[in-house]
Amino acid sequence: xxxxxxxxxxxxxxxxxxxxxxxxxxxxxxxxxxxxxxxxxxxxxxxxxxxxxxxxxxxxxxxxxxxxxxxxxxxxxxxxxxxxxxxxxxxxxxxxxxxxxxxxxxxxxxxxxxxxxxxxxxxxxxxxxxxxxxxxxxxxxxxxxxxxxxxxxxxxxxxxxxxxxxxxxxxxxxxxxxxxxxxxxxxxxxxxxxxxxxxxxxxxxxxxxxxxxxxxxxxxxxxxxxxxxxxxxxxxxxxxxxxxxx
Length: 246
Description:
- The chain is mainly alpha-helical.
- Helix content is 70%, strand content 0%.
- The longest helix has 31 residues.
- It is globular.
């Protein structure tokens, strides 16, 4: 898998944790809003780590592709059903808690692996300042497409059980983070309106750094999976975006 970068592992673990927390925000639409902003901030941070400057809309493309086909928390259940479920959740708290944990862990896993692949395309030089300066958004779209395709084709099943178990055991901390994230997302929405062009100005810090450490360990303890995922990603990417010679 190459040399491990502890800073990358910690960064992705934090955004992975926050993505899970976003899905537990008990307000329809606000949860999706928060998840989008978390992922856009992750994209901006990874680009900054690679000394790349990107416009907000470019980070948005790398984070979620075509926003018209958004597949965040709302994709798990349609909006009308989701509103209905929000009412029923007060009656069937335990059942819906289990469903929410499943959804949160799935989105957490996706964020972690998405960030892993996005960092790879930055570190290999496929995505450089020239692409960003030329406003070649079609290239950014192809990068996102390759990430999405690889995540669909290389099943993240090895992580699901462990991440769900971790989220269940840390449900109080996850709920606390969710409440803080909801407050920040509300403030952001009041400030910027309905178009989420900018990532969150601030994100809650987990009071239990060990939780994020555990989450990072779940993924980095399976280097074979990460290698398979990266290989598949590069195959998809190579079909449209030339990779530098290794």
